Structures
1.
Amino acid sequence: MTQPATTPRHVADRYVDAVCDLDPIVATQLGTRPGDDRLPDTSPAGLAAEAELIRATLAELDRVLAADPSLDDDPVERRCARLLRERLTAALDLHEAGEDLRAVSNLFSPVHSIRQVFSMMPTRTPEDWAVLARRLARVPAAYRGYRESLSAGAAQGLFAAPRQVHTVVGQLDEWLAGPYFAGLVAAGPDEVRAELDAAAAAADAAVAAVRDFLRDTYAPQAEGTPDAVGRERYARFARSWNGSDLGTGRGLEEAYAWGWAEHQRILAEQRLEAEKVLPGATPMEAMRWLTEHGEAVEGVEPVRQRLQAMMDTAIEALDGVHFDIAGPVRQVEAMIAPPGSAAAPYYTRPTQDFSRPGRTWLPTLGRERFPLWDLVSTWYHEGVPGHHLQLAQWAYVSGDLSSYQTSLGSVGANVEGWALYAERLMDELGFLTDPGARLGYLDAQQMRAVRVVVDIGMHLELPIPDDAEGAVAAHRGELWTPELARAFFGENCGRDADFLDSELVRYLGMPGQAISYKLGERAWLAGREAAQQARGADFDLKAWHMAALSQGSLGLDDLAAELAQL
């Protein structure tokens, strides 16, 4: 008989194990069950089982804390308990509001996670491929369950907006052009060739079935669903991504005003940097010049190699000086994202045992030429010292905390805030002295400030500020719309049109996620400043970095305060 949990960490670790039972994709991400060939039940019954597990875990946490109030005196147990309660409560709020019955977006949806898990599976041996084939054979059932959940949402009048549906249909068209799963198994061994080909054909057919359902059945039903989710829904999502109830009081309006002030501050700095790139040019003109005439890499494999070298160089320069990077954490791989991905680069974390390393992914969008001015800071964000150093360090110290604090308990504002802080840190340390690369860094900062403005502005339908310039100047005082947001974004971000279009769809489909970067960075900077003031001359930045990266996940309600005590 299983013994009752006695600490919040016991409760949290048991929750992770139970989640892996219900959602084997999580187990693959963590690397804890390498032979697991299952996929999650994405039907309403599967979603209900996940919610019931959350309720049971919250009840168990209450029991443990009531039985031993002294647990609150242990900082690790206190952090774990607060994180677990906040994360699970936020997830349950979304479930009870029916949000998992209309989960359609161009990133992080069940459609995408079911495909992405195959890129995380080992393929070194025939047995590895046999496991992959068995899991691949389960794709049709997983996608049927997803369609059932969307249909259940439709029956309750819960729909994703048409913009999201049409975007995902386009992505699925691109997957089918390969087709994706047939291409995935092409390198498999002869021993399981028949199983791989049959499973891949069925999986690609299941992708087509999802595409047809979304295009022909769901999209007509969803017509008229607004892009903006409104204050109540936005507050739920914002809490999920940020670990803070920003919907209370004027929290969202304050974040909106702060984001606008950051936009203006960064714009002034961009104008100064643009002069160094091209005298007399505006920031946008300077960035266009860099795109056309600045340093660039020709070819997909050469740019992958360049990004790998950039991360390797950063590790060598930072280790022992600004960070203590453990051996397993030094392993990180630059990868090319598969066709049909969203336009933004991304990172996938290592398994807990580092059998699969952390990986950065570059979507090529059909390009063969890659200007570097906007990739340098981006790879400090995605790789080193950004996402990789944090999330790989979490895996490294997971035995000292709980697997929950270093995996499922991730809070977007903590993770994205650290990655944006990492870009700023590299600027502070003198790694961005080239005017082009530094303008790229400022462009990345500006993009995150604009995200705060347009994400909150569109979903809450707030008025455009009275000092707005450019394309939206004539619309001062009017409410933000996706069209006005796209025009504003286009004037304040040096990325190409396809990227900007993809980003706008992302913000509309993942409310509250886009604000987590700048709000998280603000908390990291506030925590560092408070720690510096408290320690004075004794403050050690390297020691602070390692302590900060070794405490696991925290939400915005706790992050700055906990960082200040390190």
Note: Strands lie at 296-298, 332-336, 346-348, 358-362, 369-371.
2.
Amino acid sequence: MNFDLTDDQEMMREMFARFLDENSSTARVRAAAPSGFDALLWKGLAEQGALSIRVPETAGGLGLGLVDATVLMEEAGRTLASGPLAEGLVAARLLAQFGADPALLDRVLSGDAVVTLAFHDVAEQPRQWIAGGCVAEAVVARNGDDIVLVAVPANARVAEDNLADTPLAELDLAAFPHTVLASGDAARATFAAGVEEWKLLISAALAGLGREALKLAAAYAGERKQFGQFIGQFQAISHPLADLICEVDGGKFLVWKAIRDIADGSPNAGAAVSIAAWWNADAAARAVAQALHTFGGYGLTTEYDIFLFNLRAKAWPLVLGDPQRLLDEAGRRLYAGETAGLPDAGDVPIDFDLGEDAKAIASEIHQFFADNVTPAMRAKFHYSWEGYDPELNRKLAAANLLYLGLPKDVGGRGLSPYAKIAAMDAFELERYNNPAAGVSQMVSLIIQRFGTDELKQDVLPQIMSGEVICSLGYSEPGSGSDVFAAQCRATPDGNGWRIDGTKMFTSGANLASYVLMLARTNTEVAKHKGLTMFIVPLKAEGVTIQPVHTFQDERTNITFYDNVRIPDSWRLGEVDGGVKTMSASLELEHGGGFAKYQRAMLDAGERLCREIVYRGKPLIEDASAQRRLARTNANVWVSELLAFRATWVLAEKKTNLAYGPMAKMYSSEVFLRDARDLLDLTAPLSLSKRKGAAEEINMFYRHAQGSTIYGGTSEVHRSMIAERGLGLPRTRA
């Protein structure tokens, strides 16, 4: 897996970034109005090699790949470059591919002439809105079976007063002289591939634009005071920005995914292009709107630059037409067999493959289930702790498949973060989920790092053999996600401790033998400094376990501790050092999120849409159903990509800007949203708990309700993202 550009690409990005910072400042962007074309910038970009990036070397270009072009476009978007750059890059490549007049191509590559692109068949739509139409000498277009170069007379290049002061013009392409560049199926496919390339280039520009707008908003929110506080401290300001940085980053990764899919020949590559274009048009529009809102009334004035981002975010993609049609297009490509001509991707350093070790562990897990899991065991499988099966737990431990992320020095499998993702996906494909293993491996690691010899000799072997499982005693009735507010007391008692108090949401306590407890041992210091970690036997005298049932068919517990006595040897780490002890569990953190459940839910939704008959046909053939399933696909992909990045930065020890919270928060929110939508889409059958896809959709809807709460609420994660990902001031006490 790799989220890094090559050294050459990084150098190119830095070169274009420096050039554009100097030559496409917002002052230059303003000065280019109303034509929206900066001739000096255009010439400078040409001198930097920008216009040659996608032109083959045989035609005098650089012959670079799609990733290289998107690197340029992201910087162009960030700086609002004034000119039809995405269209110009595609047009230049098409001129070379079709063997157009070399003299014209030379003038295009040197920046002395502008040639742009028409998106629609001239035979069907002669009058079209053309990006760069008021400055272009020629337009590459399709005219029926022909691909033509339309010469635009100087007197026809009339600037159109428009939303964002871009060089837009409406041209009657049928009225101007044209030259046939090529004809036939191959020519049309090449042109169509150019249009698909434009979708990716404009998507990259929108991702760069959206992220820069959010950065401007965050900077302003960190400087502007209201009611005596920086406005960035108000969650009503910071949390929407946190939501949108996830979506904008997700849009960038969707572009990368589409390019990777093209390179790999994936059957979903065409749909990935459509989704990337739709997503980035939508995400950028909402990002700039929220950014402007952050500036309040000042955002409406022309003295602040944010309005430029707002207008250009809408103007760039709309030249193609309504972006919602791209989602319809993705639906047809995913579910109706529509094909797309795709460009050559070139070299693609970005890689989402989990590796051979990942494939091997997935295969091993599937073979284990085939050999060891009985129908009776499968009947008990459940996404919650209630799916725990002691016999299967022991078998998994014996096969070294229970504690997959636990380091080998503790007796675990020691899988790489990437292989662990594949293993979790394999378990999901088997419809097996074991939250007990995740908690128990955390407890094992903490015992190994901080436990006494007694715990290592008496308790650790029981856990490692799969004979027992452990629960977590963090949350309390009055503290929720604020684990440092724990009031459950541990009081010195002779050579040991007396535990008194209550823990809430002690899931699995009715099945577990031990609970990992965070208890208050000092009330005279800051709350996070007065906590100590213990192992407490759940069968000890004074422990009461009371069930708490949820509408998700899931049991959790409230546990009471009344004068529970344990020896000091069951303490983990230093007294009042519970936070340090708890941090050992972070060694097991490798991203996160709900993508595997989202994918399973999507699969159930697709199956149900094939089963349901709507107006005499399977529901899957309905355009609205295809659109909604495509949107769920997009959310699944973004959830996976955000989780992959979170895993990658940890595995490769890269800078981590709250990428784990981003993956968890985003995936949980869209899991819930899509669960509602798929339940609606497949109604009324989805109301049933009938075995099969209907039961699954029903279950996923109920399961999704808790996803924004488990492991810290979305609000907690939004604050982390705002602070660490956007540099906003702290929003929590």
Note: The mean pLDDT is 95.
